[in-house]
Amino acid sequence: MKTLIIVSHPEIDESGSQQYLKEALPDSSDITFHHLESTYPEGKIDIEQEQQLLQQHDRIIFQFPLYWYSSPPMLKHWQDEVLTENFAYGFGGNKLKDKELGLVLVIGMPEKEYQVSGNEGYTLSALTTPYQAMAKKTQMNFLKPFLIFQFHYMEESEKMRMLIAYQQYLMIENFDTLRAKENWFLQQLDDMDEKFLPDGSQFILDQIKELIEDNRMELDEIQMYLEQAGGSL
Amino acid sequence: MKTLIIVSHPEIDESGSQQYLKEALPDSSDITFHHLESTYPEGKIDIEQEQQLLQQHDRIIFQFPLYWYSSPPMLKHWQDEVLTENFAYGFGGNKLKDKELGLVLVIGMPEKEYQVSGNEGYTLSALTTPYQAMAKKTQMNFLKPFLIFQFHYMEESEKMRMLIAYQQYLMIENFDTLRAKENWFLQQLDDMDEKFLPDGSQFILDQIKELIEDNRMELDEIQMYLEQAGGSL
């Protein structure tokens, strides 16, 4: 699965959160990082190039700071220019069909304000309706948004947990299932190069892998038991 | 009451609907027409000037074609630049408080598609959530949006009716009440200059005024009767 991260931020070099996310990107040929404002400093978008990029990827991510409950203007400009009739919708316009659309939103206010009687007063599910409608129009599957609230107030351990979830959001199919996350962790453990690990840590890692696999087997057994029980009722 | 119409359209001269609306603007010092893309062709916004404009008006209208369920990028750029902290929100940021925010949306698809199981699938009430949230944040009163569906398919008589409603949307306080509309029509009739009317038409206009006023008196009487009946129950 190939993932295209379309980032829109007018001053990305000044943004601690965007720099943090960028540095955490896995070094993988399956991930393309694409910052619009630096690709097109004059605002003139190469439509054909963008449409090719879209077609070469399976999961499309819009990543941006939520300003006035929407994206910076450059991403909107990109939408208006690139998502043309007969490409994204309308007659023959099925080039995005069955691809995934995800949002990575960096949000300045706390999560609790985005509900009725909160200071912001509206949920992120409501505020992102225009993107849901875009996914519907282009026949894309809309993923649960990945929301980062108040990055600058996060502790280091929270940031680390967020990063892992972010990498999973970018790379895993069905990223929201326990099984997919397990497999992802096992893969990460396999990818660690013994040479760079302190003495004895390989043994610990092997133990962790075994533990994850044991847990999985137990869960599978319970699952099987439940299914049989259900069938005999 | 002073109304500021902030129009965003990247190619306004090519837009039949925007030209039609513009030509229909009442010649009134209470209405300011402000097209962003032609005011700032380089995209560099004069923030102070824009904030002054806002403060000089009571009703602020965002008028634009609905592309990908939102505004053209220029209006978003305007929001991000002009609606600064300490002006529009935050400490001391009450400069828009109690003003009205209205939307005039020109929409290419038919109204019936903007509902569950319609082709667009989402209501305009849901799609405009980001503007409702902006009104909340800035303590503005959000008006019912003024929606123009499929302008190019409208018959001449429909366009005329739409224009009258548009002028009322711009100019009348409580534009959605019958009484306000009546007063507006009476004012329009008063403003007609006898010199330019065909012979005998002044008599007809006077009859119409009398009819409207009679209707109003009858409605007032019914209203009074209902209130008394309610009080004696």
Automatic annotation (TrEMBL), chains A, B:
<dbReference type="Pfam" id="PF02525">
    <property type="entry name" value="Flavodoxin_2"/>
</dbReference>
<dbReference type="GO" id="GO:0009055">
    <property type="term" value="F:electron transfer activity"/>
</dbReference>
<dbReference type="InterPro" id="IPR003680">
    <property type="entry name" value="Flavodoxin_fold"/>
</dbReference>
<dbReference type="InterPro" id="IPR046980">
    <property type="entry name" value="KefG/KefF"/>
</dbReference>
<feature type="domain" description="Flavodoxin-like fold">
    <location>
        <begin position="1"/>
        <end position="169"/>
    </location>
</feature>
<dbReference type="InterPro" id="IPR029039">
    <property type="entry name" value="Flavoprotein-like_sf"/>
</dbReference>
<dbReference type="GO" id="GO:0010181">
    <property type="term" value="F:FMN binding"/>
</dbReference>
<protein>
    <submittedName>
        <fullName>Putative NAD(P)H-dependent oxidoreductase</fullName>
    </submittedName>
</protein>
<keyword id="KW-0560">Oxidoreductase</keyword>
<dbReference type="GO" id="GO:0003955">
    <property type="term" value="F:NAD(P)H dehydrogenase (quinone) activity"/>
</dbReference>
